[in-house]
Predict the structure.
Amino acid sequence: DKVVGLYFSAHWCPPCRQFTPVLRDFYGELEDSGEFEVVFVSFDRSEADLKKYMDEAHGDWYYVPFGSPKIQELATKYGVSGIPALIIIKGDGKEITKNGRADVQGKPPKAALSAWKAA
């Protein structure tokens, strides 16, 4: 069963730019397992900003296209009011935790993944 991190972020947000490399390294350690994916949900102000941010800082992640109504739908569904936010969900969309950012910063990747999968 795959675990997905919905990463709400934007290039204009300094805390986001600090957290993104941490998430990229975390993802890099789990990428080969095929059990964890990140989907970038951009709050960038233009498509150019989104692309630049992805090129400069991101892992090889999926992303919601700029301007898509899905961005606000996801933010509303998972109660995202500030960024950066990392919502961990199951493949079926069921929420595991809103505190993915704390887990990524505080736990080894394999331990975090095991805890998420056990939830």
